[in-house]
Write a structure and sequence with these properties.
By secondary structure, the chain is an alpha/beta fold. Helix content is 30%, strand content 30%. The structure holds flavin-adenine dinucleotide (FAD).
């Protein structure tokens, strides 16, 4: 009897776009035995390389609906994938826990209500007199920071993750085409992806993982998918050690909407992902460090040693992400304006199930 895996080996799948979503789909599908080709002209200049890699799944305050289902599935799938990927990079890991902080009393009340309603041992309110809160208040020279801790959430280094998946894909001899796709069409049961250099790449299935540009490749009169660009920015800050010991802070936390990652005893990354313009700000240091009523001195004096940004795609008129089977072997997986790293395992699973159904 021919196994499902042997049957799959005959199908050739083209993935357009090699951000985390394209690469994770390639990983999942090649593990299932499919022949995969990834196409992307500029694989290092995407929003995935800009991501801070926070996995905010379990502390998501809405515990129903599709978004929660995807988060929940990803939280379960991530540890298995990490164990698998550690064969290619033994240092790849999820740093836990994740802490969410606020100075806004109303927001804290909502967090408290969420924790009390959910009775989840992996989520706790940080007591006012706990060492964590005490250290954070001391570091930020304030008295009113409060928050919660999630032992199931954490952070994965996005660059290291992408490099590890690359190692896996290379090891599997996955075909990588360094070109831009300008058109796709179906003819005689085969898909053709046409590159800018007028080369046609044949496949049985196409998965569109090319973020904002996905809509340019489909017949959008029928599908009516709208995406808008959303900027995300981050900076690395060097802090004078004499002023504060950053090692007293948690490794990763969110405070009043800004994500902070402690890199070393004198380096932090601060990221902001809720900007709705598309142009990076000139005064980014001022803006991104402005998350408390009063900035601590060490932060005012901090030196910005790096800055970067990424442009993501946000669906208009429907929830994020867009995961649709457009029929005939064409699948779209885009619109990850937030949480693309977190959701990659659950979304890739959804795609592979669609493909299995299509082929069976
Ligand atoms: C500053 C910042 C911080 C973030 N922090 C987090 C975080 O902490 N946690 C988290 O989960 N998420 C985070 N995100 C969000 C996350 O980065 C995105 O959700 C994710 O990267 C989306 O991945 P993607 O593969 O859909 O898109 P992208 O990474 O943008 O990849 C799309 C790819 O498609 C390619 N492409 C486009 N058009 C074509 C074409 N015609 N032919 C071939 N290829 C094409 C592009 O070159 C690109 O490589 C952050 C984002 C930013 C910017």
């Amino acid at each position: 009897m021919i196994s499902l895996k042997e049957n799959f080996q005959k199908a050739h799948i083209v993935i357009i776009g090699s951000g985390i979503i394209g690469k994770f789909n390639a990983l999942e599908l090649s593990e299932l035995g499919f022949q995969v080709t990834i196409i992307d002209p500029t694989q290092l200049q995407n929003s995935s390389n800009a991501a801070l890699g926070l996995l905010m799944g379990n502390m998501y305050q809405k515990r129903k609906g599709r978004s929660w289902d995807l988060r929940k599935q990803s939280i379960e799938l991530w540890p298995q994938w990490i164990t698998f990927l550690q064969k290619f990079n033994c240092e790849l890991n999820i740093e836990k826990p994740l802490i969410q902080l606020t100075t806004n009393e109303q927001k804290f009340k909502k967090l408290e209500k969420f924790i009390h309603e959910n009775n989840d041992l992996n989520l706790q309110i940080l007591e006012k007199n706990s060492i964590i809160i005490d250290n954070i208040n001391k570091a930020f020279q304030t008295k009113n920071i409060k928050g919660i801790i999630s032992f199931k959430d954490g952070r994965i280094n996005a660059i290291s993750l992408l490099e590890t998946i690359d190692k896996y894909l290379k090891n599997k001899n996955i075909n990588f085409v360094n070109e831009e796709i300008i058109k796709i069409r179906k003819s005689n049961d085969q898909w053709f992806s046409t590159t800018k250099n007028n080369r046609d790449i044949k496949s049985d299935i196409i998965i569109l993982c090319n973020s904002l540009k996905a809509v340019d490749l489909i017949d959008n009169i029928n599908h009516n998918i709208k995406l808008k660009p959303v900027l995300g920015q981050a900076i690395e800050v060097f802090i004078n050690e004499a002023e504060i010991d950053l090692l007293t802070l948690p490794k990763q936390f969110n405070i009043n909407g800004k994500n902070i990652i402690r890199i070393t005893k004198n380096k932090l990354i601060i990221g902001s992902t809720d900007e709705y313009s598309t142009k990076p700000e000139d005064n980014i240091f001022e803006k991104i460090t402005d998350f408390l009523d009063k900035k601590p001195n060490w932060l005012i004096k901090g030196q910005m040693t790096k800055k970067w940004f990424g442009v993501r795609s946000r669906p208009e008129g429907e929830p994020s992400p867009i995961m649709k089977n457009l029929g005939d072997g064409l699948i779209i997986c885009t619109g990850f304006y937030k949480n693309g790293i977190l959701l990659a395992p659950a979304c890739s699973k959804w795609v592979s199930n669609e493909i299995k159904n299509y082929l069976s």
